[in-house]
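Lab notes, practical 5.
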Amino acid sequence: MSNGAARRVFVSSTIRDLAPYRDAVSARILQLGATVVAAEYFGAREDRPKEECLRLVREGCDVFVGIYAHRYGFIPDGDELSITEQEYIEAIRSKRPSFVYRLAKDHRWPRRNIETGPGAEKLVEFLARLADDRIYATFTTPDNLAAGVAADLGRYFAGDATKTRFRLGLFHRPPAAWVSRAAETDQRYKLVVMDLDGTLIRGNDFEFSWEAIWTDLRFSEDVQAGLKREYGQRVARARTPEERIDAYASWCEQAVDMFADRRLSRDRLRTIAGRMRLTASCREALTRLHDAGIATAIVSGGVSTFLEDVFPDYRDYVDFVFLNELTFGADGRISGVVPTSYDFQGKAEAIDLLCERVGCSPREVVFVGDRFNDEPALLKAELAIAYPPNDDLARNAAHVVIRDDNLLAILPHVVSAD
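Output from the prediction step:
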């Protein structure tokens, strides 16, 4: 029996334009002793049944292979995204080991297989998401693609899973047409990165999102401390960033399982958020940063619902957001979490990723945070602002300490006068 025996590989792509590529990949997967789960089982139709496809990604496969060229794919009635993109999103949410391949940009392609109209815009946004996730390889011919897939899956089946690692947590990105102004602005700082909990979102006795939920659901401090202890022990044993990220993801997932046991709903989260508020002058300060050509980002270990409820128009003011995304069932009750890879030490790694997108270096970055889990990012940035200084770690790591609840107070340190 080969190393790939009994493995089920879901092959996702548009159909007609990539038929010879899919055939070549499927043949190599079978040679590895694995089983192919593919749209051909639905008669090779572009309008394959969405729910069944997503179920197979979620429950019917062990590995996900995504192949993308110049077509966006079929969009079911009532949906905004194609089945092909929804399959990719489901793979991420289901934490399927994933291998993604894009047609090389300079490879000639038949005009009839190039998307036009609204689908072309959606394709650009989808491909931008792949670029942000930084997990894809490129291909040209069917044989070239099949060889790459076979090599990647062969390593994975043999026990080397390093290629399947991808980072989650980029909750919001700018539109595909967004262009950084880093090259044109004469400002010293090109990017301001901010924490969310305690920095942009405030409230009486509010420290961070997760604790607000624990408290509202009346969990004992012992339960919280037990989870934190387990997380801390796993982090202490971690030898790689992936092990550290897995430890954090496990903490998030266990917390959400406990929340689900107490029937936490989206409506209840709105009630909790109703006790919070934005820091003073938040929108005005962010507008002035944008007016100066400075990009903005939130990098937080908080949860998506509080951002959506307390700052519902955040997309108009913030270019990038990294945080934990809570998911909900049709009944409105919490069903899961897409944990961010960018908390604690990951906040510093998010700065590197953001610098690539914005076109700047960490020497042109400001970080604004308030407590211990912001320390790696405060130390990474050229200018570190403790706003407010909620513990000694943040205070000692900062160049500037601001106690006033007014985000405009950071501007004299960030924006140079004309």
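Observations recorded by the TA: The longest strand covers residues 295-303. Residues 8-166 form a domain with the Rossmann fold fold (CATH 3.40.50.2300).
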